[in-house]
Amino acid sequence: MKRRSRSMMTKEEILNAAKKWEDFCIALRRDFHESPELSGQETQTIARICTELRAVGLSPIEVQDGGVLAVIEGDAPGKTMLLRADVDALPVQEDPCNLLRKKECVSKIPGVSHVCGHDCHAAMLVTVGKILAARRDFPGRIVLMFERGEEGGGNLRYLIDYLQKNHWDIDGVWGMHLNSDIPAGKFAIRSGPLMAGGLMFDITLVGKDGHGSRPDWANNPVDCFQTIQTALDKIRMRAVDQMMQLPFDLQGVNGVPAAQYYWTNFKFCRYSSLL
Predict the structure, then answer these.
(1) Per-residue pLDDT tens for 152-181?
(2) Is 150 a catalytic residue?
(3) Which CATH number fits domain 197-274: 3.40.50.1100, 3.30.70.360, 3.10.20.880, 3.40.220.10?
(4) Residues 37, 88, 94, 119: which is the catalytic one?
(5) Where are the domains of the chain?
(6) Does 218 score more than 90 pLDDT?
(7) Is-same-fold flag (11-175; 197-274)?
(8) What is the pLDDT of residues 72-109, one digit of tens each?
(9) How does DSSP classify residue 257?
(10) E strand map for the chain
């Protein structure tokens, strides 16, 4: 017998449910913030997420090297929507103060912190899972995805492979990211990509060292670097749709010679973004 769907949650009911779980969400976020874990090391974070999901009757699936998936079945047939959050931190020492005052919550792990908001993303998605698991008055099903190693960019493939191999047909994906430019209580929404992903690459130029008095006997890698730098910057103007995001950032240059000498190796790295 086909089940008949109950009425969907109203705006007021959604706000009331969010208010009910607000203190929990804040406390969970602070727990994550105080105990950040780098990409590939999110053991305790993943364990806490699974514990909280099991507490409301969900059955989280740990995907090796990928993260966690959990399904919330609705009360009628329908589409499958995926909600995604990242969970890893960055190798950054956190400042105990922000621009206005001392922070209420600071990382307790030296040299590691949640400066990209993944603690908030994970806490919010866990809270959404608890709210939806208690109601289930929607058609279709919701898939919760908690992604490990987002900052490194390589772990998502394990989750995608799992979804494909197990024939989890996803009709749509929602991701969310904090943005301090948007007033609290407001959402900025658009169809398709909203923020660019990251891609890191290193280049080592090998030249021929020599004395500054005879540049014709040497091969200075700085000259080559300047050409590459200029060409990379022109990619945005010549090869990419101007409406698309493509930030480029030269993050490091390594090659300091002794006075008046050219050197052999010159290494630089860049952080670019892709959609």
Answers:
(1) 878 999 999 999 999 999 999 998 898 888
(2) yes
(3) 3.30.70.360
(4) 88
(5) 11-175, 197-274
(6) no
(7) no
(8) 999 999 999 999 999 999 999 999 998 889 999 999 99
(9) P
(10) 61-63, 67-73, 76-86, 139-147, 172-175, 197-206, 210-211, 248-254, 261-262, 265-274
* Phi, psi (deg, nearest 5) at residue 248: -125, 140
Instruction: Among 12-16, 24-28, 162-166, name the one with the lowest average pLDDT.
Output: 12-16
d(CA 138, CA 221) in angstroms, rounded, equals: 61
Cβ atoms < 10 Å from Cβ of 75: 15
- 88 catalytic? Reply is yes
Which of 37, 42, 86, 150 is an active site residue? 150
Copy the structure tokens of residue 271: 């952080």
Which of 91, 53, 69, 73 minimizes the C-alpha distance to 158? 69
> In CATH, what is the architecture of 11-175?
3-Layer(aba) Sandwich (3.40)
Secondary structure (3-state) at 221 = helix
* 89 or 256: which leads in pLDDT: 89
